[in-house]
Specification:
Porin; 14-stranded antiparallel β-barrel
Length: about 325
């Protein structure tokens, strides 16, 4: 049965890979710098963050992702610098990525920040067809060669804009602008392409009067040519700047994707722990127990003075 699932999973991925390559994190409000270089340095101090995602538990060859993010002000509070290291596996596919990001605040105001950012990326794409359990449906496909591996190294560039006003933010970005061929058979008109992804994000912190509670809504929209657009909607409740509970709903123009539960504990001003669980809402639900994410973050020093809540910009 696992072989059947692996084959179906791999077949489905190969069908859509040319349109949808970027990993989508449930805790997207905490991983903004991976898709928007303008975010680096926005919090005003040095932060490092790690996240692990295990998608569609119970599937052999299901997506697994790890990422480490680092960002800091660079000599001047208006200048930001960041590094992302990412690793993704899905079936016979393995990807590594390293990003360098730079941002600059176009304003010099206490409550308003308009940051423009650019990033450069190096990505390695690998295909491993050596698994003896791998079932190849079309043995004449020149992109698939039994027992052999395929590797390619590609470069890319990205750009973004990130605006924050008091406790609200909005951003737009294209983290990978170039269209690279990442398939083994470049002559095939259906060869896998790495297409540009377009992101829009927004959110804010809304204090509830005369209480230690605050609402924390967030949204992220993603579009790439040839694939359904994706929209993640999240609403969380924050208590005493320490505990955050919330739920998300992810949908596309074709179907509902998942409902998600999120929890974050701010153990101290510098250290936080986040965890999330996704429950799928499409056909795969009968074969998986869901998706989990675990995130750790640590920041050095105090937040920037113009940020009223230490939790908001994590």
């Amino acid at each position: 049965m696992n072989r059947i699932f692996t084959f179906l999973f791999f077949l489905t991925f190969c069908t859509i890979a040319w349109g949808q390559q970027e990993t989508q994190y449930t805790q997207f409000m905490h991983t903004k710098q991976m898709v928007n270089p303008a975010y680096v340095g926005a919090r005003g101090n040095t932060c490092v963050k790690g996240i692990y995602r295990n998608q569609w538990l119970g599937f052999k060859g299901a997506p697994v992702s790890q990422a480490i993010m680092f960002n800091m002000p660079f000599f001047d509070p208006r200048v930001g610098f960041g590094v992302n290291l990412q690793h993704h596996t899905i079936g016979v596919i393995e990807n590594w990525e390293a990003d360098l990001a730079y941002s600059y605040d176009l304003t010099n105001q206490e409550d308003l920040s308009v940051r423009f950012g650019v990033m450069g990326s190096i990505r390695q794409f690998s295909l491993d067809f050596s698994d003896p359990d791998l079932f190849i449906r079309n043995i004449n496909d020149e992109s698939i060669t039994r027992g052999e591996n395929f590797n390619t190294l590609e470069g890319d560039v990205g750009a973004g804009l990130y605006v924050s006003y008091e406790d609200y933010y909005f951003g737009v970005s294209v983290p990978n602008i170039l269209s690279n061929i990442i398939g083994a058979n470049e002559d095939n008109p259906l060869a896998a392409n790495e297409d540009p992804h377009f992101y829009a994000m927004a959110g804010g912190l809304i204090p509830i009067t005369d209480s230690k509670l605050a609402l924390f809504p967030n949204a992220m929209f993603q579009y790439v040519q040839g694939a359904p657009w994706e929209l993640g909607l999240n609403l969380s409740l924050m208590f005493d700047n320490k505990f955050t509970f919330g739920g998300s709903y992810r949908l596309s123009n074709e179907n509902s994707d998942s409902v998600d539960l999120l929890f974050h504990f701010q153990a101290s001003q510098n250290f936080g722990l986040g965890i999330s669980y996704d429950y799928p809402l499409f056909e795969i639900v009968d074969h998986t127990s869901g998706t989990i994410e675990i995130m750790l973050d640590y920041c050095i020093g105090e937040k920037s003075k113009n940020m009223s809540n230490p939790r908001f910009f994590f």
